[in-house]
Amino acid sequence: MTTGAAPGTGADAIRGMLKELVGDANFSLAFQPSRVEVSKGGDYAYTQGSYTLTVTDPKSTKPIQDSGSYVTVYKKQADGSWKAVSDIASSGPPAAPAK
Fold this sequence. Notes:
mainly beta; four-stranded antiparallel sheet; 1 helix; 12% helix; globular
């Protein structure tokens, strides 16, 4: 789930959203985790922190930058790998206009 977009539900929808995102010539994404927690049972974990995203504005065709916070929940798989099972990002307040 990202600000301003409908949630992606199901593998095909999520793949389509990600394909479009990473296909953007201006795409850049950086995460800064501030917290990582693992459940006592060791089968779930989450990270939370901040992000900065650059994409192309479809209206102006110019690069725009978004930043805010995120939380991602992971589930440990039978083979020992971790898969994200829920992910949400929320934009921070807009930048103040230059004076």
